[in-house]
Specification:
This protein has 111 residues and is α+β, with helices and mostly antiparallel strands. It has helices at 9-17, 40-56; strands at 5-7, 25-28, 36-38, 64-71, 74-81, 93-94, 99-105, 109-110. The strands form two sheets. The protein has a five-stranded mixed beta sheet with strand order 2-4-5-7-6, covered by helices on one side. Helix 1 crosses helix 2 (40-56). It starts with a strand and ends with a strand.
Amino acid sequence: PMDVSNVTPAELVALSLEHLPADRVTVDLSNAPPSMQIDGPRLARAVQNLVENALQATAVPSPVELRITTSAGHVVIDEHWTATYTDALPAACDNTRGLHCRYAFHEAAVK
């Protein structure tokens, strides 16, 4: 079962990056909603996996950029990085200028 509660983007990022090298991740919350009705721990784990995969696909010290925004009432999480390889990229990714992946989480209610 989902454990939905009111979570701020900053709280989501803190949970997501808790066990990752924060010095290699830049975060942009400038267009993020003030809060979201989401399953914080579950979405944080998904974001952690996405960022961890991006970190593994980049050469140190290349950063991973993480941005949380909204679009049409949905939470959108973008990540961008320069990949050291382009095999088996997720369908959500575009590698025309580095790598840019966009994931929309439609279950989240934006407030």
